[in-house]
Amino acid sequence: MRYPDLYILRHGQTEWNAENRMQGWLNSPLTPKGEMDAARQGEILRSRDLSGFEFWSSPSGRAVQTAAIACARLADSIHTDIRLREIGVGDWSARLRDELPMPDGPDPYMQQYAMAPNGEGFEALQTRAQAFLDDLTGPAVIITHGITSRAIRSIIVGEGALAKPSVHGGQGCVFHIKDGVQTLLE
């Protein structure tokens, strides 16, 4: 399937990101660094021609706060869609990662999301991300979360979209996807 031109932003650093705490569907506010992350994303977006683009955000406070900073002078309106929220981590919401079981393997942090008791799981996340993409009618700027961004990008680009993860998980940068090719804008 062919998808429209997309710019995908992860919210800026939050207080819980800085504490290495699982957020999932809960929220914590942006840190001063997170506000700078969002401002940097706004600088990147202002250098692009966004004529005809719609702006979509997760309804989570950290994403809405990022959208307000990054897109303030760019968007007439920013729509929210619950399908853009972060993966649910169930019983592990608000828990420090260091207190949780750390599986062995190539990507233990990602495995923690998969094993969270009463969590949403990757299959359900993929399903809602796909449904969001299927409903897009044109080019869009999407403000979302780290794992949801990964899901959206892997649907469009394939697993190659995740081959070179950034140290910051996308905070402060923008992923541009055009014609099935992903470019990291920093």
UniProtKB/TrEMBL annotation:
InterPro entries: His_Pase_superF_clade-1, His_PPase_superfam, PG/BPGM_mutase_AS, PGM_Phosphatase
Residues that, per the record, bind substrate: 10-17, 62
Keyword Manganese: no
GO molecular function, a single term: phosphatase activity
Name of the protein in question: Putative phosphoserine phosphatase 2
Gene Ontology cellular-component annotations: cytoplasm
TM spans (from-to): none
